[in-house]
Amino acid sequence: MILNRRQLRLLLPLGTALALSLTGDSTLYAVLPNQFAMVGISLGAVGVMLGANRLIRIPGNLLAGALNDRLGRRRLFLIGLSLGILSTLSYSFVHGFWLLLAARLLWGISWALINVGGYAMVLDWSTSTDRGRMTGFYQVSYMVGLAISPILGGALTDAMGFRTAVRICAAVSTVGLAVAFVALPEVRPPAATQSRTSKQHHPRRWLGATAEALRQTDRRLWLAGYIYLVVFFVGNGVLMSTISLYLGQRWGTTLTLGQVAVGVASLAGLMLALRALLGILGGPLAGIMSDQLGNRWPVIRVAILVGVSGFVVLTVVRGVWAIPVGVALVSLSMGALIAVVAAIVGDLTAGNKSGIAMGGMATAGDIGSAAGPLVAYALASVLDLRWVYLCCAVLLASCLLATVGKWQRAGR
Length: 412
Known about the structure:
Layout: H1 5-21, H2 23-35, H3 46-71, H4 74-90, H5 97-124, H6 131-160, H7 162-183, H8 203-215, H9 219-251, E1 254-257, E2 260-263, H10 264-293, H11 297-316, H12 322-348, H13 354-380, H14 385-403
Antiparallel strand pairs: 1-2
Helix pairs in contact: 1-5, 1-6, 1-7, 2-6, 2-7, 3-5, 3-13, 4-5, 4-7, 5-12, 5-13, 6-7, 6-10, 6-12, 9-10, 9-12, 9-13, 9-14, 10-12, 11-12, 11-14
């Protein structure tokens, strides 16, 4: 049996709540470019709205991690779900730039609590022998939500209108909150049981202790953070934001597959769906493999090579089938790396520090995701996108170089 009853007791309610919490945010990504007038903003403000939640998470993830280590996991996770529902529901009422921006910032705070707290619970409730598979299967929940939510939100918007659609999405997220409230166990780290009146909880002492902890952090954690940042930069940031542009540069508005003419927009959507599906496959497989090997770094290196190969295919191969092959390889690599890096973080941190450690990883990922499109489109204005993808291959390869030598014995 891949997962035992104890693991399922955590992963089922946690994964269900996580997947259902994404409905509002994913719907906004799918429909806001066409529904911006409904909420009283300009087309130029759409990008601000879709990115504002990520920007606030850059400092918010670390704060969420610190709070998780001090206050426990379950309560903050439930608060995050509740704030997410409030954010989604507010999309149906707000009108104008500043009110919608406030709703998006609220979602950013919500997701920091959900994402960091969820990963911290998985790391707490796992050991070095099963942590890879648990992070892998937890990632499946995220990818399933990411794949299904925009389809659901888009269909509801077409059938009932934007405001009704997001209200239904809020109701769907409420189901996830109910499941978590009833079935999610508390996973409390040892530090959370200490007296809140202790001198070490004085703000200045706590900040000083945090700074000292960062200085003494295992260098493998810094390496894991670097890999996490690069993976999100080249994958979520560059490739996923430019695939439609790449297709348009190569084939215009339509291309022919056999006897069928396919629009570039439709093909780009299929590539995004492919990314989610292969992420679902890559995470658990890599996690299980890293558990069985007893050393996660060889799996990291293989996954990096797969990702580099994907970008090389996109750079060098000219045929239309290079697109799905390249995207598939990068997506498998991303799914594997995100799951196994999270497992490494759990292996290297004590239970009462896994929250702040995952907060740091999440911050690195958000920085990469936010910077990727900005850098990619700046370079695309002066270079062919194939050269941008080649730069991604080189950057990803730098992670491979960083894992050899002294890191070869850095297993768990």
